[in-house]
Amino acid sequence: MSSQTTPARKIVVGVAGGIAAYKACQIIRAFKEVGDDVRVVPTAAALNFVGKATFEALSGNPVSTTVFDQVDRVQHVKIGQEADLIVIAPATADLMARLAAGRADDLLAATILVATCPVVIAPAMHTEMWFNPATVANVNTLRERGITVIEPAHGRLTGKDTGPGRLPDPEQIVDIANAIASGVTLPRDLEGKQVLITAGGTQEHIDPVRFIGNSSSGKQGFALAEIAAQRGAKVTIVAGNTVELSTPAGAEVIKVTSTRDMFEAVQARATDADFIVMAAAVADFRPDTQASSKLKKGSDEDALSVIHLLENPDILATTVQRRTAGELSKTPVIVGFAAETGDEKTSALEYAQAKLHKKGCDLLMCNEVGVCKVFGHDDNQGWILDAHGGVEEVKQGSKLEVAAAIWDRATAFQQ
């Protein structure tokens, strides 16, 4: 999660009466840890799951559910007016129905009716309730009014049920909310689109213990998948080595190890994709042989000191070539990534421009990498290059913010 350097914000955390209400405690703590002033506004039903004292202790502010508390301070108006960001997690089907109807029958509903700041709603309910036509209509109504309703996660629900409707991980909710507060929007412009994304680093084994690899964490690729899923896409992630990352709502994750593994997985799935984003940091070369047992110093000194390399298949160039040859059932927008370092003769941007021309992709995101830059970090920056010669600077921001900028360009390029 990105650290906050801006002045303290006034954050309202709304909590509805669902079993996932306990996860709101992590959300409150996350905002508090970066210096935000947090006010918790639960529904009366939420206090059946988490007590008032817990919310007050975590937030450092009084907790109320009714418009009739602190009437002299007109808190049913003041809380919403002063808020910089409102996050409701979990939001039940009942709460969303009341908000869509414009009700103001408790403090949380009244606060939303007054608020002019960004509002982010994280639903949590059983699958049947999420897909019920009434809930679908209410979600659409709220989105049309400018409220961000994020997609629920897929997974274990209350009881033995499994499916869409699970509350996303608290860290995901906080990261999305911070991105929305920074100006990111989540239009539903990827509804019905198939998105294929590569993420993380590949590993080329020398023996069962040692490998050639890089420091890629996979965070940018998963951020791209998160934004795509929240914009309505069906997402497949082909992931190499990554840190522990939460799976975006509804996304399928296919784990691979080597560049050849990733090549095969991408080519098998590229044919039906509307967008293909190659964010993985793949190894360009691999050892020509892989020892079946660990190489030992002394007895295997030659094998350890001299490693002969073979060139790996070029996933990006091959995919572009297949599109040009008409081998894909669709004509996807293809986005490449360039992790570059400049030198005394050529800048990182110039190297990226040359790569874009060579690979033939539609867009290319260039990151200038190196020690303490990009890999493994929560922030990113660089340039988005397009096949028409355009260059757009992407200023430093969270990887979700960078992902949103890339998707804005990718969807515009398709048009």
UniProtKB/TrEMBL annotation:
One Pfam family name is Flavoprotein
- Reactions mediated catalytically: (R)-4'-phosphopantothenate + L-cysteine + CTP = N-[(R)-4-phosphopantothenoyl]-L-cysteine + CMP + diphosphate + H(+); N-[(R)-4-phosphopantothenoyl]-L-cysteine + H(+) = (R)-4'-phosphopantetheine + CO2
Q: Which SUPFAM superfamilies match?
A: CoaB-like, Homo-oligomeric flavin-containing Cys decarboxylases, HFCD
Give me the ranges of the annotated region Phosphopantothenate--cysteine ligase.
195-415
Enumerate the cofactors the protein uses.
FMN; Mg(2+)
Keyword line: Decarboxylase, Flavoprotein, FMN, Ligase, Lyase, Magnesium, Metal-binding, Multifunctional enzyme
Co-factor: note: Binds 1 FMN per subunit.
Annotated region (Phosphopantothenoylcysteine decarboxylase) at 1-194
Domain named Flavoprotein is located at 10-175
Q: Provide the leader sequence positions.
A: none
- In short, the EC number is 4.1.1.36, 6.3.2.5
Annotated ranges, domain DNA/pantothenate metabolism flavoprotein C-terminal: 190-410
Q: Where does CTP bind?
A: 284, 294, 313-316, 337, 355, 359
Gene Ontology biological process terms in this record: coenzyme A biosynthetic process; pantothenate catabolic process
Q: Does the keyword RNA-binding apply?
A: no
Tree of life domain:
Bacteria
- Report the GO molecular function annotations: FMN binding; metal ion binding; phosphopantothenate--cysteine ligase activity; phosphopantothenoylcysteine decarboxylase activity
Which pathway, metabolic or otherwise, does it act in? Cofactor biosynthesis; coenzyme A biosynthesis; CoA from (R)-pantothenate: step 2/5; Cofactor biosynthesis; coenzyme A biosynthesis; CoA from (R)-pantothenate: step 3/5
Q: Does this entry carry the keyword Cell cycle?
A: no
GO cellular component terms given for this protein:
phosphopantothenoylcysteine decarboxylase complex
What the record says about family reads: In the C-terminal section; belongs to the PPC synthetase family.
The record's function comment reads:
Catalyzes two steps in the biosynthesis of coenzyme A. In the first step cysteine is conjugated to 4'-phosphopantothenate to form 4-phosphopantothenoylcysteine, in the latter compound is decarboxylated to form 4'-phosphopantotheine. Catalyzes two sequential steps in the biosynthesis of coenzyme A. In the first step cysteine is conjugated to 4'-phosphopantothenate to form 4-phosphopantothenoylcysteine. In the second step the latter compound is decarboxylated to form 4'-phosphopantotheine.
**Protein name (database record):** Coenzyme A biosynthesis bifunctional protein CoaBC
Q: Which organism is it from?
A: Corynebacterium callunae DSM 20147
Q: Taxonomic classification, please?
A: Bacteria, Bacillati, Actinomycetota, Actinomycetes, Mycobacteriales
Gene designation per UniProt: coaBC
